[in-house]
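thoughts on my protein:
***
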Amino acid sequence: MTRTSPRDGGQVVVRVGRVALPGHAVRGSDRTARRVGILLELRAPDGRSGWGEASPLPGYAGETPERAAAALLALAASPAARSDLSDILREPGTAGARLAGALRPGGPTDAVSAPLRRLLAAPLPASARAALVAALFDFAGRTTGTPVRGLLGAPRTGPDGLAPVPLNALVPLGEPRDAARAARAAVGRGIGTLKTKLGPAETAADDLDALRAIRQAVGPEVAIRLDANGLWSVDDACRLLPVLAAEIGPEYVEEPVPPDRLADLPDLPVRLAADESLRDPERAARLLDCGAIAVIVLKPGPLGGLDRCVALAREAAKRGLATVVTHAFEGPVGHAAACELALALRNGAAAAPGVPASETPACGLDAHPVLAAPPGVTVPQLRSASVVPASVSGLGVDPRPLLAPGAPRPAGEA
């Protein structure tokens, strides 16, 4: 179907396309979940475009690519939303200012930002909203020659004036010898922070053997992050975290217990990080204030967009909490959006007085198999051991080859 919004003799087009992504290994099983990604294009009457991506992991946060695609097409089919999009896209020179204004405390209040304010308030699934926000930022950046990091609040200087963000590398736990080998390989390419996924409490002894091998292989100077994905009970966490603190010395442990129990943990000898717990805004606000966590982990897709991530980062900075940007195994567009967010935060977009930028921790944006799927579609910010401020406009990714003839059929246009 095709629906258009005439403005000054032109048409605004919203295209939602499906793309195949490599399967994602399911922890604890031998199967690989099939992946489908959703690309969103906002195209102005003069042909200029902005791109966003909604590629939720199967079963993650109750979202599906089909639901994201349906929500975006429904939004684009709304006459009011099409009118608002037309108002924004036909004046690209002010799009960047509007988006930057939307990130100010209290959000945009001037009349010129009303169309944007209404779009940002649309009741969309988190991944769909993240795609819409990224596409708007990409459009504004492309049409004004500005990297998205500049629209998010980083200084609008050349790449040489901005600091890169170091990467952490994901090391699978398994046989100690294999885990140690993977850890050495990561450190060998310049990685200074490693991350591992822990299993349920029943596998803690095996996990600890692998972690000891990793620590012995890389030495005490390499940071190790742990993520239990909420698999432990409070009693398990109280029993296991002191052991991990004493033997491994982790930088932090992410989501050791289910989201609704994180604030119940007593004072323990290791820093805790919140990831999935942040998806509920009310719970996130309580966690930021309760003193239970020291780190927040920001994923633009599950959290609903770059603007929400910046808002959370600013609140965290006020409380002296560290911020780590990571991904949900999206394709190049979603990954580039997360890279630009990490660069913006690294270079002052959410700085708090007295917190030097050099204390910004490594980000979880290392290369992963999904990024290798589309030949010729690269993430320009990504290097072997860091995210760098590449010379780009917008997100710097052209995903059109993913929708070329022979690619999966688009979901529709409006």
About this structure: Residues 126-144 form the longest helix (19 residues).
